[in-house]
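Marked as duplicate of an earlier ticket. Keeping the data here for the record.
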Amino acid sequence: MALSDSVTTCLSPPVHYVICKLGFEKKDTYDINIILSENGEVCWQAVTEHVCYLESDQSVDYIKSIRSLGPVCESVNLHFKSLTKEQFVIQYALWFRWTNYTELFLEVFDVLQHTQTTEVALGLMKLTSCLERALGDVYLLIGKDCPFLLRDLLASEQLAVVFGQAVMNVLRVFIGSPYGLNLRNVLWHGFASPQEIPAKYCAMLLFLTAGLGQLLQTYLLQTKCILVHRPYVIFVSLEELDVFPDLNHETLSIAEELVKLSSFVLKTMLPFWMAALTAFKQSRYADCVILLLPQLEVGLRLLFTTTNKCPNRLLTAEPSALYTTFDEMLAKHLDNEEVNQLPAVLQEPTMASILKEFLWDFLNHQEGPRIRDRLSHGEINLKAFPREVANQIVAFAITLLCRFSDEDMCAFKEHMVIKPLMNCASCYHSRFHPTSRLKKQVLECMKSIHLWPELPTVPEEHVRTIKGSEGNAEASTLILMISEIISQLQQYMPQNCYSSDDPIGSVLTERLLVELCDMHICTLYSPRPVLEILSVLRKISTQCHQVSEQVMASTELRYKQWMNKTLRSRQRHNYLRMLNSIKFLSPVLRLILVLITLELVNVHLVYKKNPLDYQQYIKFLKSVLQYTENLVTYTSPEKNKWDETMELTNKALIKIRKISDRKLMLMQLAT
């Protein structure tokens, strides 16, 4: 891994030229008064004149445009340096209000006064994310679904209507197009080192943002529209993100030493790492994570390109190729279908799984925090970024620094404050993969069903007044079928959880589900059919939980009405039928939850060994889903169809019993 010392840039030669040299070729001195009027308004026509177009199709000629805009950017940068903070606030603060984050742009102005390269890069990353969010709000003045990608947003007709196409073309020279400077992407994906981002481009984007505010004000006055800002995303259930212990000053001090020695860190990127750790110590948690996430990506990219012998992929791709990003680095195969060698270089059998599970949990899974997406697209309030999230990212980064350190650094790995982090990483299991979410759903549903015996109910003698409610053949058949199915499945359950004297009471318990859910299930490289199965199982669990909640709500309501003697004769009879039905509905729902969990434990093995049975299998699961959906309808307060519920349940159990014989064969083949 000596490569981390020898790499001087992650920008390919053409991209390095465009960002670091092209905009400096023209040595002209540009008069700021040409693009800035006496009353402080941006003269957009003078700016847009510097955008050049190809003769062939009149699309933007990015090379000529960057070269032409270079002196303009320098003039703007010098102009800002000539202003005091008070002068800047008086002249420009008003025009940043449309972004809903004026303070950020004032902060960027402060950074430009000192020209510290790391702070400029950080300021540019924050500016572009905030600008993207604000432009999305403007888009929604006209459009409905805001584009997810910045390049699509900038190319939209909606923004062209508000700001003008020529103005949008100016923005695309700086951000959003892989043919332009593409400043946002080269920073957020970890390709640019601090010294490779000219401060004048940050100054120009600050200037253009103010100009956009002026154009927007004119548009809003003309159209009488009101700009509405979308609410920020708020992290909920932070306890689910609690993986590593809280980092203290001693841990962070050791991390600073590790950064200087670890082969995971490119030396050109060292300032970003140090700035990230400093930001954490200063309680600037959003800044810390913004700086650190791209460095995790470039560190893994270094490993990926080294182990797969494709060193050219360490550099930024040209517009005609794709970046090597997290998704590809964590994939099972390369784009040429060869096996990705990165998991092998991680050596420990579980390290590849841990690495992917943690990164996918925090960055990719739809039900996870999706930290990078939400930060880079401006969806999070940077002022209220939680320490808990930053703590997890920094702690995980420290474990990578240790993992990719020389052998003579064992003292660091065994240090009393570092070892607990390594231990936490070694036993990490996914929390936001569909498998993990299904486990959580099943346990929550079982807790809900376990509350049924505590529900208030009328005396048993009243229930017996229903004709045939006691000892009828239908009820006996239901219990018998449930017992038979449990007997068939008990060999795949943990030991000591089955009693032939009481199969229902001994098996259909919360304890069993907890034991099954505690079993580790590999979520690495789940094939699409398995994910489809998990999706159906989750829907079944959701419907079961809905049935449980409806049963509890109806039971409590009807009991109150019974005690208050406000039920009509027919309603009383229906209430008693309900009480009779839910005695049998409880074990049925618990059986379904056990089946779901057994499917969850075995689905990867079954599919791997018997992929041809998939269509038949998914058809069966969808029939169970249909049953639970019908249950939701029949047990709703509006329907209250309890006789139909029992009839429906009987048919469903017959089908489950039939398919369970077939399913047992599949499980036996898989194990």
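See parent ticket for discussion. Residues 513 and 594 are 7 Å apart (CA to CA).
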